[in-house]
Amino acid sequence: MNTAQFTPAGTLTAEDLGRIHLIGVGGVGMSGLARLFLTRGLPVSGSELRDWPSLAGLRALGGTVHSRHEAANLDGVDTVVYSSAIPQDHLEMVEARRRGLRVLHRSEALAAAMTGRRTVAVAGTHGKTTTTSMVTMVLQQAGVDPSFVIGGEISEVGSGAHHGTGEHFVVEADESDRSFLIYRPYVSLITNVEADHLNTYGDLATLEAAFAEFARLTDPEGFIVTCADDPGGRRLAETLRAEGRRVHTYGEAADADLRLRDIVSSAQGVRYLAEIDGRSLGEIRLPVPGRHMGLNSASAVLTAYLLGLPVEAAETALGTFPGVRRRFERKGVVDGVLLYDEYAYHPTSMTLALQTLREVAGDGRLIVVFQPYRLYRTRDSQAEIAAALGLADELVLLEVFGPGELRAPGEGSAALIEAVPLPADRKVFVDSWDEAPAEVVRRARPGDVVVTMGAPPISLLGDELVAALAARTGAPSGVEPGGPAATLG
């Protein structure tokens, strides 16, 4: 069980950090933090072995990116920032401590950046990246220019971080390693509470207790938002209200403070009527499919309403919501095959994603290329993950992505493929990344929908699939532009 301890948010500011170096700067979370510091005018460097797309943007902003991990990268540095993916014996971590430099977890550095702002912290088992993006866009539309750091890039905006001039700071709060407990939000928005990250918490009860602790850190002048349709969110609201805390709920439930009525979802998007305390707020429309998208958007509407912002700003922002990269991101059409990329790996979010993809596929088949994320999750939730994958017509399964985990013989995807309720000829486990494109090309035909789904590396497979499908047409390029992305939690 992960028992990492982090320093609670205090009076440390971003400017106090001096020259900042981020280990593993290419990841979405770390690159977003680096972008925030750079746009704030702070000197930033980072080290990264892989050439992630985000690195070009950091260099353009004046950041220094080292393509090797080595002690010399820390010359002139005052503060070293790491994520939970970086081991304590990493050579730059060891060197930072030897030199007596300030060493901060990503969440601690982010907390310093939030000092003096009214923080809107979005947490939850799934849906938080999309919800954080929606809240951010609503606040931007309202003209308050919030700062934000999101665990994904808002499509078309092309960024997951921004240093704004307003008093609000919107942040995606990560529960996976308990680091969300260092924040002191003005608004705590919790999308749902389900079993996950049990390598850290051990059981659901301990996880729920951590979400309650997070909510209790909310400023007494602020408020808490939870989902009335989610059993974990409902239990949390009941607990906190019994303690006299200010809690507001959203959902289709009859007792939700903000209620969604007459919700309709199709391949073209989702719409619903919003009511608060029995008073109509009008119709909310989103150009993205999925009933759960209605729930995500309702939390943004409720948050804006409680902050005293015009509901019209929420209606306008959500009506043009472009989606978030890696959240049901449309990659394009190649040789008649529609390609998407989707981050879902928890069984609930996988089920929601695949159900919505079926709406998009219509009469076509759904082919899923899935890479499980973490061995413990794949093992502990094997039945639920297998059931979700059973919604596909065809499955191409890659080995589990689990850095630092040891896999016993027969564990991981070899066991998962047997549990997926599909005929043997409609599912295949490929233990080599290089085999996946050819397997997809062999199975896919015009009218099909193909989605790469799961752990972060699978997003890199999308371009290979595009190239492989284009090659079978005999043309150097066969891609129809994807256009605005749809988004799934």
Task: Kindly describe this structure.
33% of the residues lie in helices and 23% in strands. By secondary structure, it is α/β, with parallel strands linked by helices. It folds into three domains: 14-108, 3-Layer(aba) Sandwich (Rossmann fold), CATH 3.40.50.720; 117-319, Mur-like, catalytic domain (UDP-N-acetylmuramoyl-L-alanine:D-glutamate ligase, 3-Layer(aba) Sandwich); 329-480, Protein-Tyrosine Phosphatase, Chain A (Alpha-Beta Complex). The strands form three sheets. Strands 8-7-9-6-10-11-12-13-14-15 form a ten-stranded mixed β-sheet, sandwiched between helices. A hairpin with a 4-residue loop joins strand 7 and strand 8. The chain starts with 19 loop residues before the first strand and ends in a 9-residue tail after the last strand.
Question: Can I get a quick summary?
Answer:
With 489 residues, the protein is an alpha/beta fold. It is built from 16 helices and 22 strands.
Protein topology:
Elements: E1 20-23, H1 28-39, E2 44-47, H2 54-60, E3 64-66, E4 79-82, H3 91-99, E5 102-105, H4 106-114, E6 118-123, H5 128-141, E7 147-154, E8 159-162, E9 168-172, E10 187-190, H6 198-201, H7 204-216, E11 223-227, H8 231-242, E12 247-251, E13 258-266, E14 269-276, E15 279-286, H9 291-306, H10 311-319, E16 329-334, E17 337-342, H11 347-361, E18 366-371, H12 375-380, H13 382-389, E19 394-397, H14 413-419, E20 427-429, H15 436-443, E21 449-454, H16 461-471, E22 479-480
Parallel strand pairs: 1-2, 1-4, 2-3, 4-5, 6-9, 6-10, 7-9, 10-11, 11-12, 12-13, 17-21, 18-19, 18-21, 19-20
Antiparallel strand pairs: 7-8, 13-14, 14-15, 16-17, 16-22
Helix pairs in contact: 1-2, 1-4, 5-9, 5-10, 7-8, 9-10, 11-13, 13-14, 15-16
